[in-house]
Input
Amino acid sequence: MRKIIHVDMDAFYASVEQRDDPSLRGRPVVVAWRGNRSVVCAASYEARKFGIRSAMPAVRAERLCPDAVFVPPDFTRYRAVSRAVREIFLRHTEHVEPLSLDEAYLDVTENLTGLPSATAVAQTIRAEIREELQLTASAGVAPNKFLAKLASDWKKPDGLFVIRPEQAQALIAPLPVGRVPGVGQVMERRLATLGLVRIGDLAVAEPDQLHRHFGRYGKRLHELAHGIDENPVSSDRARISVSAEDTFENDLPLSELEPHIRRMAARTWQAARKMDRAARTVVLKLKTSEFRILTRSITLTTAADSEQTLADRAVGLLARVELPDSVRYRLVGVGLSGFEAPSEAPLQPGLFSEQDASPED
Output
């Protein structure tokens, strides 16, 4: 049986800003550029009391808390702190799978420091982060990645929670299905129409029913609802893409997709900025009302340098969708791929070459 820890830094970007500028401590801090198209990268816990959350439009955050202090993000500094956190992880195990700058999975089935339990390792890691970096982290300890990630949210901020194998089923059953990876708002509504509102409902659902409605993902849903997750911690996994997509309540014509593309670009950009690499390929994904999937992509000569660049390039790809105006679309997605080390992909605007991905059916 594996021993997995999920470590999640608390309000990472905002906490780094408060650590480095004492005048910000105890104040509602919003890490974001100001502007109509800007989104919140992070919010301190003081700001969250006003309802401010990551990925929220910055103008809305300003309305919710006019006294909030807006700080432009400094990703170079956040990456440096993230590397220091990772060095602490590597003292305890070689098996570290970073998910972003502020969270990672660790497999401590066998740890390097001789500590007697995974709980002791998690306690030590959190203490070292606090003492050496003056930051706090929450951690979850469990026999697999799914449960460990759930556990790390249990006592945030600055908390530690352990899910033991014999406790898992009872602990996760009351949680909403939205806590399961891959279950977004649209999927949550589809599950609700089947009477599946809690994870416990999924656990007692017929596997054939889940497969009939959700295909192979139905099996995954059933396994997770029983606390089963066989995916190992992969320390050498290099993330090759990042994306966000949304399924509409009602199918839309091509002419009405631009605001939705820009909204997905904002979400993708926020996720991409957590990675210690830069990307040069912008991907637009569309799904028609008949479930035909089309992708269009463009490869820039230099990495995408801003959320607006990403959004503008994604919107520009609409011109290369050669389907009749009568076609309606049920989903739109925006992605970034072609990730390179920052030193290999300078963030500056430039000419670009085009590469058109073949439609997928």
